[in-house]
Structures are given as C-alpha cells and as structure tokens.
Specification:
This protein has 12 helices and 37 strands. The chain has about 700 residues and is of the alpha+beta class. Among the domains are: about 1-155 and about 225-270, Beta-galactosidase, Chain A, domain 5 (Distorted Sandwich); about 555-575 and about 585-700, Sandwich (Immunoglobulin-like). α4 (about 345-355) packs parallel to α5 (about 395-405) and α6 (about 420-435) packs parallel to α7. The radius of gyration is 26 Å and the shape is globular.
Length: about 700
C-alpha cells in the first residue's frame, strides 16, 4: 500500500535573494541555505529557534576538473510538500508516514557552465539532503576526490562512536566528548584482523550525540548506492564534522556518470531519545521496492550450526591440511579431523530441534569444501559454493528438512575473494534452489579481492547490490555479514533481511567481548539504518563451561538475552546457543519459542543511549504484545505504564532477573512470574546489573 495524499509545488526562478528557507511540517525545524562571500553554498538547521547545525559548507572535490565548491549562482529553487502512507513488506510497524517539505536548489557555475542540484527534505524529525548531477555538455564523466559536506555542531557534544574504518565496524563503542575522540584506539583491538583506520579523528556513522542542553542528534546516510561509505572527520577544536569517503587503491572515491545522485546525508534530531529510535526518516529517503512479487519474502526465526564452532566444540573445516587448491584435492580420500560440525548427522539433530520447537530454519556453516585454507592468504580460489564435504549429504538433508517443514539456510563465506563469488553467483544460487534453499548468509571476512579495494568502497557497495538483485531473480533472501552497514535499502530490496556490520554476539565466545552497555548503544547507532543479525539467545553465559581455562563470557544475564529479541529488531532472528543448552532451561526457552520476528506496531517506552532501553511491540499475526527491557552495567528499576495497550485486560508472563542475579556473578539466575494486568496499569521492573526483563502480554476476552 502506498497512498500519496498531497503534493504542492512552488517554483522560484532567477533567484536574486541569496537566502532561502523551508520549515518542517510541524514548523519546529527550520532549514536555511545561502551563498557565502566566495559564493559557496552554506546551510544551517535550527530547532525551536536554536541552531542544531551552524552554517556549514556543501560541495564536491573532483579529479582533473574544476571543483563543485564555490563560484555558485543560485539558479532556481523549487519547494514542495509531500505526504504518503506506505506499508513495508516486513518491519516494526504496519504502515509508515512519509511527510516532508522539500527544497530543490539548482546551482550554476557561470565560468564552467555547469549545474549541480542539491535536494533538501525536511521532516519533523530531521533533515535529509543529497547532491544530483544532471546530464550536461560540460559534465558527463567525473571522478570524486572527496565530498566536502560539513556538519558544524553547536558545542562539544557527548558522542557514542567507533573508529572510522574502511574494512570493519566490529568495535565496541566509546563514549566521550567530541573533543576527546581519538580513533587510533581501534588499532589496539587485536581481535579484528583486517583494519584500515585513516587517522585518529575519523569516526563511523551512524554517529549518536547528545548536547549539554539535552538535544539528541544522529548523523548517518540513506540509500547508499553506487557510492562509497561516508565517514566523519572530526575537528576537535571547532566541533565541525566533515564527510570523508572510503577510497580505492588510487585514493579516488567515486567514479560517476551523469545523470547521477549521491546518497542522502541524514540528521535526525529530537529532545527525546525515544523519538530518535522511532524515526523512520532513513527508510522514507529510500525508494519503494522495485520487486513486482514480494510474496516469497518471509521473516524467520532460526537456529544453527554456528555457536558450537565459536566455542570450539566443532570446527568449520573437515580435515587438518593446508595449502589447499580446490581442483587438486580428493576430499573423499582425506582423513577427517573428528571435529567437523556440518555433518549430516549433526544437521539432522538441529532440524529435529527446530521442528520440535517451531523454528523456521537451520543455518549450517562449514558445509562446503575449502575451510582448511580459507583465511589470511589473500588468495582468489577459496570456495566454490557447490561442493559439500564428504560427510554432508545435500540431497538427504534436503529431503529430511522438507519432511520436518524446516528450511535450511545456505552459508556463503567468500573470504573476501569477491571476484570469485561474482563469477560463481549464478551457479551457487542455482545449486541453492535445486536443493531447496531460499535464504543465504553471506560473509566477507578478510582483505578484499580485487586487491586494493575496501569493504566500504564504491566497488563493494555495488557488489552488495548486485548480489541482492541476482538473489531476487532466484527468489533468495540475503543475510550479509562483514558487509556495509545498513542505510535503509531494505525498503528498496526487501530480500535484504539483515546485515551484520557491527560487533555481534560471537565476540563474547573468544575475546573480551561486548560490555553490558553495548546493546543499549547499538539501536542508536548501527540499527538506525536497518536490522542486524546480532544472534542473541545465549543461555550458557560463561565460556569456562567449554574450556575450563577460559576467562571469557557474555556480559549479560539470561533474562537480558530474552529481552534482546524485542529491543534488537531483526526479521531474521537466531536462537544462537546450542540445543542442549536450551534443553537445560526449557521454561525460559519458551519465550524464544513464542516471540515473533515480524511486528505490526512498536512503542519505544523509555530509552537513553548507553544506559537502558525499554520497547513494546505487537505481533503481526496476533493481538499479543511483547516488552523487552535492558540495562547497562548498572542495576535499574523502572515503572512502566501500560497505556499503549488496546485491550482492557491481559495475562502476562514476566521473565526477569533473580534478586541476586548480575552479569558477573549469577548471570543465569532468573525467575518467571505470571500476572493479570489492566490497560493503564503500571508494572514495576527490576533489572540486575547487565540484566533485562522480557514480557509476553496476551489479551483476555
């Protein structure tokens, strides 16, 4: 459903007055643009009469051509108002209001006889703008050296940040003032194997900030297509952020041909943290889906042969050899190492567990040959994506999964040899469909081939899009890992169910892990652009259960792991722990069995980045509501009013931390309580340090 209610256009020609402005639909935000004394284009944005963004420059630096930085004349300004109501294929809500006031500014450089257009869209919750280059005799092909987009802030804001890295987003978040940012700390994060940090003042987007007077500001981008990822270079003295694009091997940023546009640059702003999380502005800046048929795209809940690999019970590789050449190995003659996880027998066990507990799918990693020599060699031929190990019977497992009404999810680890994957995509996807696979988890661990490219460069951004478009032809859904972070493109490509592109739960198995605050920051940062496959649901918290010498653990309580299914949105959610661990806590596992992955409504009840989040969601397929509440390392008590409920009476089940529980000492102690409540009633939540609460609310007729 996509209903457009109103469209009004006003055209101003031959602009002599250098200052133009528009307001947001609710008039709280004001955007102004003007030309400087050097005829540079400046913009600023205010909220309730106070600057959010001071005068900031816009422009593009070109290679071997005059730049789009100054010498502008404002040729035309076109303003319009737009309102539509549209329904996502899947998501957090049934329908989304897209309402903005728009100003399209056409800039002309008289000397070069060239035109550049900047489109500004001002929503009630923020601003989106992008550059556009129409077809013109004086500009056909051009190379972007740098984009000079500025965000001049009003002060030394509190900031939640990770280093700007061309190849990884898998860092824990730092919290500091803008003036205190030193992203070189990322170079000491040894568990990230491939890093490319350009300097000590570069940060990743989405960047979350809070001003001293309580204004929340989030800077990101939307609709990242045919263009490199944008990072932010921090001027620590003047509090100005400037765009910095991911380069290629020649230190160029983007290769463009007119007509073309850049991604949208986004600024979401509110005096309420809850409204930041509620924003749908980034989705609204993306184009509607071009897929004619979306009936095959289904959210799903899955388990998998995965956590057993990370905790060291099993291995991805079948044998213990090295220097593997795919076409020179007789796999059936090799002696298995006895630890291989992706066996026919083990996969059947996971299928049985999935069928018994109502899961949609089973992911299998390590099924295909090549894992013996897959990482760190920067070699081209790593996997072929169609040859299973001798102990993995593809045909038998296809039949067995189908008999149990369970889907198998294919795993395609590319080892970052992307040219190899591109060559083999059709064959790989044909193999999937021939054997009943409708979903693929892709992976890009390592240094990118083509050599010299980065995970976040223009070439790779186009690759991720090619995979989505190719997958649509085969009716395959994609869950990408080690890929570019999300920018709302799941509106346009709804088969892109989720991406990783952040530090996930697996780091807790074999490193110092993620601090308790991590999951309270991610929704304000990484999730602003779209869902993540975070893989929650770990019940065996401490890793010395598997290796007595291990000092690692998940920095959580068991109840918090349940709550993450509500606070972390994804249409493809994993129950990440081992089936045998869930069987030890079947009463708590009931919540994971019942919690949906597709929602018709979402209410952000309470939130503060780095501290706590409480979210309520309504099931897409029933009248049941679910609440998730999580905290950082501090114990917190909350009073939650149930005034959002549409029915008068509910039976609720509360999964909560035990009184003596905390993430360090007693993380696996929990209690389950059943109550009757009424609409508008208040309930009281007590969260342990690093803890959480998960609630199911079922209406009573």
């Amino acid at each position: 459903m996509r209903l457009i209610f109103l469209l009004i256009i006003i055209v101003n020609l031959n602009i002599d007055i250098h200052t133009q402005q528009i307001s947001s639909p609710d008039s709280k935000l004001i955007l102004k643009i003007k030309l400087s004394a050097d005829n540079e284009l400046l913009y600023n944005m205010s909220r309730d009469g106070k600057f959010v963004i001071r005068d900031s420059k816009l422009g593009i630096d070109l290679l071997n051509q005059p730049d789009f930085l100054n010498g502008f004349k404002i040729d035309t300004v076109v303003t319009s108002n737009f309102t539509e109501l549209w329904s996502p294929v899947w998501g957090e809500v049934d329908s989304i209001l897209n309402n903005y006031h728009q100003m399209v500014v056409t800039l002309f450089q008289p000397i070069e006889k060239r035109t550049m257009i900047i489109t500004f869209r001002l929503f009630n919750d923020g601003l989106g703008f992008r550059y556009e280059f129409p077809v013109q005799d004086s500009l056909k092909y051009f190379t972007v050296l740098e984009e000079n987009t500025q965000f001049a802030l009003t002060g030394d804001h509190k900031t939640f940040w990770i280093p700007g890295d061309y190849d990884s987003q898998e860092y824990t978040y730092s919290t500091s003032l803008l003036s205190e940012i030193h992203s070189d700390i990322g170079k000491n994060v040894h568990e990230i194997s491939v890093k490319s940090i350009p300097g000590d003042n570069f940060v990743q987007t989405p960047l979350m900030m809070k001003s001293k007077d309580g204004l929340y500001i989030n800077i990101h981008e939307a609709a990242l297509l045919n263009y490199p990822v944008m990072y932010l270079e921090v001027d620590r003295n003047n509090f100005v952020l400037k765009s910095h694009l991911c380069p290629d091997a020649y230190d160029n940023k983007a290769y463009m041909q007119t007509p073309c546009t850049t991604p949208w640059r986004t600024i979401i702003v509110s005096d309420k943290a809850e409204e930041i999380l509620s924003s749908k502005m980034i989705l609204n800046l993306n184009e509607p889906t071009k897929f004619e048929d979306v009936s095959w795209i289904k959210p799903k809940k899955y388990i998998g042969i995965w956590w057993n690999l990370h905790v060291g019970i099993n291995s991805w590789n079948y044998a213990d050899i090295n220097n593997v050449k795919l076409d020179a190995v007789d796999w059936k003659s090799l002696t298995p190492n006895g630890k291989h996880g992706a066996t026919t027998v083990n996969t059947k066990r996971y299928i049985d567990f999935a069928a018994k507990h109502g899961f949609d799918a089973v992911l299998v990693e390590g099924w295909d040959v090549g894992w013996e020599d897959w990482f760190g060699k920067w070699k081209e031929e790593v996997f072929d994506f169609v040859t299973p190990y001798p102990d993995f019977d593809v045909v038998e497992l296809e039949k067995y999964a189908k008999s149990k009404n369970v889907e198998l999810i294919m795993h395609h680890e590319t080892s970052a040899s992307v040219t190899n994957y591109d060559r083999r995509l059709d064959e790989a996807f044909t193999f999937m469909k021939d054997h009943g696979y409708n979903s693929v988890k892709t992976g890009y661990v390592g240094k990118i081939i083509p050599r010299g490219e980065h995970h976040d460069g223009q070439w790779m951004v186009n690759h991720y899009t090619r995979v989505l478009e190719k997958a649509e032809k085969y009716k395959i859904m994609v869950n990408s890992h080690e890929s570019v972070r999300s920018t709302g493109l799941h509106r346009t490509y709804p088969n892109w169910l989720a991406a990783e592109a952040a530090r996930g739960n697996e780091f807790n198995a074999w490193s110092i892990g993620n601090p308790p605050e991590h999951e309270t920051i991610l929704p304000f940062t990484r999730f602003m652009g779209g869902p993540m496959d975070y893989t929650p649901g770990i019940f065996q918290i401490k890793m010395d259960y598997y290796k007595p010498e291990s000092k690692y653990q998940v920095h959580t309580t068991l109840a918090k792991q349940l709550a993450l299914y509500v606070t972390i949105y994804s249409p493809i959610q994993m129950a990440a722990d081992l089936p045998e661990n869930y069987e030890r806590f079947l009463d708590a596992f009931t919540f994971i069995e019942q919690v949906p992955v597709n929602w018709s409504d979402t209410k952000i009840l309470k939130a503060e980045p780095g501290d706590y989040i409480i979210i309520a969601r309504k099931d897409k397929d029933s009248d049941n509501w679910y609440i998730g509440a999580i905290t950082d390392e501090l114990a917190r008590d909350f009073e939650v009013k149930l005034d959002f409920l549409p029915v008068d009476k509910y039976e609720i089940t509360i999964y909560k931390d035990a009184p003596d529980s905390d993430w360090e000492k007693n993380p696996m102690k929990y209690e389950i309580e059943k109550l009757s409540v009424k609409k508008n009633q208040k309930i009281y939540l007590e969260l342990a340090p690093g803890g959480g609460t998960a609630i199911i609310l079922k209406p009573v007729n």
